[in-house]
Amino acid sequence: MVKKTTASAAGRETVSVRQEFLPLAPAERTAWRRTLYDLLGEMLLDGWMAESMEKGITRGRK
């Protein structure tokens, strides 16, 4: 994990870059993660279906 050091009122504090770019609350992160996984699943399924149909069409012509 990438870390960067920032100056704060309490001294020096190490903050991960991931924390800096994930300002969402845990429940919101879970919802976003589910949405992203759903989208990824749909993309993979669409790609597989397109490839299968293309192979099927090619096989049907020969």
Short summary:
With 62 residues, the protein is an alpha+beta fold. It has two helices and two strands; from the N terminus they run ββαα. Helix content is 66%, strand content 19%.
Describe this protein's structure.
By secondary structure, the chain is α+β, with helices and mostly antiparallel strands. The protein has a domain at 25-62. 66% of the residues lie in helices and 19% in strands. The chain is built from two helices and two strands, in the order ββαα. The protein has helices at residues 17-21, 26-61, and strands spanning 3-8, 11-16. Strands 1-2 form a two-stranded antiparallel sheet. The longest helix is centred in the C-terminal third of the chain and has 36 residues, at 26-61. The protein is elongated, with a radius of gyration of 22 Å. The mean pLDDT is 75.
